[in-house]
Design goal:
With 94 residues, the chain is mainly α. The chain contains 6 helices and no strands. The longest helix has 17 residues. The radius of gyration is 21 Å and the shape is rod-shaped.
């Protein structure tokens, strides 16, 4: 309930801090840790969770995902001098 309900999180500050700690440990050393660390002063698990959701579902991540997919698709272009059998093998195994 702490993750999805602000009122519950505010009525249960100890549980909210526990959720913050768990999110902090879970993201430590990863690419999303900076998102959780923004909420370190208040140790607000609910707000940290909301920020993580916005990061992963928001425009920033969607743009990065689109760039990664676009780059990957560029590697799949078949040129006129490429071996078609090797190309198909690479495509199916990557």
């Amino acid at each position: 309930m702490v993750l999805t309900n602000w009122e519950y999180a505010s009525r249960n500050p100890q549980l909210n801090r526990i959720v913050y700690s768990q999110l902090s440990v879970a993201t430590s050393g990863g690419t999303a840790y900076h998102i959780v660390k923004q909420h370190e002063d208040g140790k607000d698990g609910h707000d940290a969770w909301k920020s993580l959701i916005e990061w992963y579902d928001g425009d920033v991540m969607n743009s990065e995902t689109a760039d990664a997919i676009r780059s990957r698709l560029e590697n799949y272009k078949l040129g006129s001098t490429d071996d078609a059998a090797q190309y198909i093998n690479n495509f199916l195994t990557s």
